[in-house]
Amino acid sequence: MWVIGGKDGAGRITNTVFVYNPNASARERWRCGTPMNHARHGLCAAVLEGKLYAIGGTDAEGASDRVEVWNGEAWELGKSMIVKRTDFSVGVLEQQLYAVGGDGECRSMNFPVECYIPERDRWTAVGTRASQSIRRGVGVAGNVLYSAGETGFSCLRRNLRGLLSWNRGPELPISIEGFDVVVDCTQLYIIGGVPDDETATNFWRFNTTENYDRGNWRPLLSPLGSPRYDVKAALL
Does domain 2-234 sit in CATH 2.10.77.10? Predict the structure, then answer.
């Protein structure tokens, strides 16, 4: 599992990369990876055809359409999105990337969904519009895309007509924002984040890592190596 970019405990935008190996010893499960070329927070991460994509987000100049691709040895420049956006969501359905929702220079929270097809190496705006929400985490299991907001889950799947539609999912154990979601078989992992009520929760809430498994939420034994929010994560 790779955790990329975001902000550190002092609120600085970072290009750092952390890699988690559950099979390593407790002290070696988290290690530092190769930093991205450009520091960003509010970006999205997804794996497509064995490559890790770091998409969009906010850099020092504002919302970005930048895409970086990890090819196994180094970060390389990818095809830029059509719309500059941050605090959005990305999922992989049918070997295509879908960018959902977010915020940007126009301060709109109702962006059209963008679809990236690797064979064509370009992003295409599609007509379907997603939930008007920013700071959502997305994970895909089978033919279903799971999107988590501040308090609950939504499930995106194709109906009988082949169109994407949303259904309500389980609520989160705590109300947080600025986190990401990773799906591994039947488990949904929440990575990082900050509680809505910062005055009632101490700094260590930034370290919170919880997972949803068959209807029950429970904390993981190994927290994230460093506090993070506005972060994105993906399995590789």
Answer: no
